[in-house]
Amino acid sequence: MSLIYPLPDVIDLGGTVVFALSGAMAGIRSRLDLFGILVVSFAAGIFGGLTRDVLIGDVPPAAIHDWRYIAACSAAGVMTFFWHPVVSRLRQTILFLDAVGLSLFAVAGATKALNHQIPPMGAILLGMLSGIGGGMLRDILVNRVPLVLQAEIYAVAALGGATVAVVGPLLGLSSTLATLLGACLCFWLRMMGILRGWGLPRAR
């Protein structure tokens, strides 16, 4: 196998590592053992993309048949287990990379769904699922209400980015430009949620 991978694969793997790190840190905070940390790490890293691939019929999913995804999640989990104080100090960096991963996964997921002849509305929802699926399962496994349902803008950011990526070409934009704009919108919304505390209204 060639050691030179296409850029989309590199981006996908990079996002997988970031989300796997966030899962492993959640496991550390919940005082799980090594096996539990690895389980949460895998869940956060691959669940969103795996679910999307199953739903659009791209089977077996890349997260299952490509050893790089398994290796990436395993490395993230083991590294966090042994060096979690160092990883904890990189929390702000991980949040930034998480926003990047969310943005890229959302638009890439929507685009992949369109390429498999999924209608626009379905592609938008699958793009959002690609971005948030791992984080939701991570939070459920450590027994907390998923972040995407309660506080900072997260799912809405993924939904916005996926919408731009899908609707842009319908309005005459090139697919590349629409994907870029969608990723930028998702990233900006997520960062505003982190830095400014933006969120949706709650019932009083």
Q: How would you describe this protein?
A:
By secondary structure, this protein is mainly alpha-helical. The chain has one domain (7-195). The chain is built from 8 helices and no strands. The chain has helices at 7-29, 34-56, 62-65, 67-89, 91-115, 120-141, 155-170, 175-195. Helix 5 (91-115) runs antiparallel to helix 8. It is globular. The N and C termini lie far apart (57 Å). The relative contact order is 0.14.
What percent of the residues sit in helical stretches (DSSP H or I)?
A: over 70%
Mean residue pLDDT: 85
* Total of domains: 1
- SS element count, helices: 8
- Sketch the major β-sheet: none
Concise summary:
The protein is mainly α.
List the helices and strands and how they pair.
Layout (H helix, E strand, L loop, with lengths): L6 H23 L4 H23 L5 H4 L1 H23 L1 H25 L4 H22 L13 H16 L4 H21 L9
